[in-house]
Amino acid sequence: MLSVPLAPKVTSLGALDPQRRLFDALIPLPEGTSYNSYLVQGSEKTALIDTVDAAMPEVLLANLDAMGIKNLDYVIANHAEQDHSGALPRVLAKYPQAKVVTNPKCKDFLIDLLHIDADKFITVADGEKLSLGDKTLEFIYAPWVHWPETMLTYLAEDKLLFSCDFFGAHWADNGPVQDEKRAYLAAKRYFAEIMQPFRNNILQHLKKLNDKQISIIAPSHGPIHLRPEFILKAYLEWSGDKPANKVLIPFVSMHGSTASLVKTLEEFLAEKGVTVKTFDLTTVDLGELAMELVEAATMVLATPCVLAGIHPAAAYAAYLTRALRPKLKYASIIGSYGWAQKVPEQVVSLLTGLNVEILPPVMVKGLPRENDLLEIRKLGEIIVEKHKGLNS
To answer: What is the pTM assigned to this prediction?
Structure first.
């Protein structure tokens, strides 16, 4: 049980889950996560902003009991996904007089996901306000950050933004940020894996917040930002269109041939002042690749042939890249094959939908010879020349 005061009569009292290692049966959680729920006690009404994951309702209910909360008037549902809403049925059972305040789309989701009765809801419009007496909640629609029904809640009197998944981090901590370097990396990983596909929407929502005075950002996962400019600046950089002078080379090598191509390209680019990050796809935490995709200009996928096609690990990396929709400008393919290959066509197909220029692939038959390595250096020269125009 853990409660953290944020402002007068405003408390963080969600649940920490340090042992969880996978989210959505997909996303690695090296530092666990938290499910942040916030209590706002006005002079007339009391509101709970979001609940916690369905696996941990007892923690939230115990925290409410420890604070002596006998009555809840409202439960604000910023987002319907079950890591936010899963404990909502238990909260409503304990506080049957409470109404769920959300937008119409989130109401429909919660009815489908949790079978909550329609008469338990109060729906609010974008910009609508709800008075708790001496505290006022304002609701800000933020669709596609990262679901279509997401909204934020702003507490005007305390200049406090309850930002839902916006500005969050999968990290088992719901207190104020103590280590900004560590917080930056955790937030970047979260952005990379969850928010990156919606970066154009995020830029618009950042603009929407410009007219708000914000002293505290309280997300639904991870630590709380008492210096909002830190995370706002990071999100602006991550969501922008200008990539860095960086090349990513995710690779698989079964017998060393593809690895030798990777080494040659890596050394050539590094000599020319290009930052290069390589990722062995047989061992890498793909969250690390996702983080580097946030700012890289070029990805070169390196794969051997398996039955004339792309290696499955490389195919997954290509699929993941397309799903994350990063700001990449260029992509290419290198690799080795034995008797026949259709790798470039398959990779291009997997990357369809990304706005990238495909640079000439280099596929080598058997163990690379010196002329093959010369072709790799030529590809490097093309990349270096392309990168010269990144800031133009």
So the answer is: 0.95
